[in-house]
Design goal:
Shape: elongated
CATH architecture of the largest domain: Roll
Radius of gyration: 30 Å
Helix content: 10-25%
Oligomer: single chain
Strand content: 15-25%
Distance between the termini: 84 Å
CATH topology of the largest domain: Chitinase A, domain 3
Length: 185
């Protein structure tokens, strides 16, 4: 092939697509770079704002079920609530009307999980000691320190009693909650 062939000497070969991309305007190019830059800044800020001092939550309800050591401290209160300490918290102890955040897994006597904050993706927050939760929670959570993990064995009178709950918890059920007191405000 020589200089007289179809491609020509020094000429660009014809493009295979008849559609060509128009040049990108400086405004569009600036916006694209701005969006990329903002995304990077946001990712860095969110990553640096993470609280590395807080323990990480188990990813599933099954992981929210504690292994109980044989020598774990067990407290039985006058009301019949049993508190088995799995891990002592190092933070402050909540008082009446404290806003607390608790990760939990609730189980029936046969081990069936009937409720879990892990499945919902975040801890449950409530005002302690004012009857917003079952009595066993108000009493048991008040005995923990922030960061503490415990198993609460709640007799029916401190749980859902003779009525049960929502077709999930039968009447007169003893309940077990593995709880982690995440925060106290």
């Amino acid at each position: 092939m020589g200089c007289g062939d179809s491609a020509g000497c020094g000429e660009r070969p014809a493009q295979s697509s008849p559609v060509s991309n128009p040049p990108i305007s400086p405004v569009v190019r600036f916006r694209r770079w701005g969006v990329c830059l903002l995304s990077v800044i946001l990712a860095v800020c969110v990553g640096s704002c993470a609280d590395d001092d807080k323990p990480t939550a188990p990813a599933t309800a099954a992981e929210g079920v504690w292994e109980i050591a044989e020598d774990a401290e067990r407290i039985v209160t006058e009301s019949g609530l049993t508190v088995i300490h799995v891990e002592e918290g190092t933070g402050r102890r909540p008082g009446r009307s404290s806003i607390v955040a608790v990760h939990y897994t609730g189980m029936l006597e046969d081990g069936t999980v009937f409720d879990s904050s892990y499945a919902r993706g975040g801890p449950f927050q409530f005002l302690l000691g004012v009857g917003r939760v079952i009595a066993g929670w108000d009493e048991g959570i008040a005995l923990l320190h922030q960061g503490g993990r415990a198993r609460l064995v709640i007799p029916p009178a401190l749980g859902y009693g003779q009525t049960g709950a929502g077709g999930v918890v039968p009447p007169d059920a003893t309940l077990t909650f593995d709880v982690w007191l995440v925060s106290v405000d």
